[in-house]
Write a structure and sequence with these properties.
The chain is an alpha+beta fold. Helices cover 46% and strands 21% of the residues.
């Protein structure tokens, strides 16, 4: 019939379809978005950690290169006999010894013999490393071969955020990193 209204049941069904979202649908959407944001936050933490660790490793390589330059600058000292030193904290030791070596002079202000200058360089390098990398350890060893070869082994701790961990173990872990440099003074 023209001008008559549709049945009431059709109107109620149309109104239900156009009525919007239910509370359950909204809660499910919020949970899905929250889980996605948590994943993005974890990825950002891992990315920042990787960037910081890359900077740390580059700095360690520069520090190793600076010690290599000191060794190369004093070839007579490093060629005199097999030399092996352990550097920890701000101290220098002959490998296997318990007493730290101390440079007899401040070679920054006084002219020094090559032996004193080498020890002074090692001491200053160790102090600089201790400031940048607490808990580091380094060994410098030169052999008797011809041509002479020296090896610098450097290790340090760095904090790493791991991408795949359980919630209880999601805090930053400590990883021991190492760097080896071979040179011929």
């Amino acid at each position: 019939m023209p001008g008559s209204h549709p049945p009431l049941s059709n109107c109620l069904a149309a109104r239900r379809r156009a009525g919007g979202f239910t509370l359950v649908e909204v809660l499910v959407a919020v949970i899905v978005v929250a889980v996605g944001l948590l994943g993005v936050a974890k990825l950002q933490a891992v990315g920042l950690s990787g960037s910081k660790n890359g900077r740390t490793r580059a700095l360690a390589a520069l520090q190793a290169e600076s010690l290599a330059a000191s060794i190369t600058a004093l070839p007579a000292f490093w060629a005199a006999a097999p030399r092996e030193y352990t550097l920890e904290g701000a101290q220098v030791f002959l490998t296997g010894a318990t007493a730290a070596l101390v440079p007899p002079l401040d070679c920054g202000t006084t002219a020094c013999a090559e032996n004193d200058m080498a020890l002074y360089d090692l001491q200053r390098w160790a102090a600089g490393m201790d400031a940048q990398f607490p808990g580091y350890q380094a060994q410098v060893a030169c052999d008797r071969s011809s041509p002479r070869e020296c090896t610098l082994r450097l290790s340090w701790n760095e904090r790493v955020v791991q991408a795949r961990t359980t919630p209880a173990a999601s805090s930053a872990a400590v990883s021991r990193q190492s760097f080896v440099l071979h040179l011929m003074p």
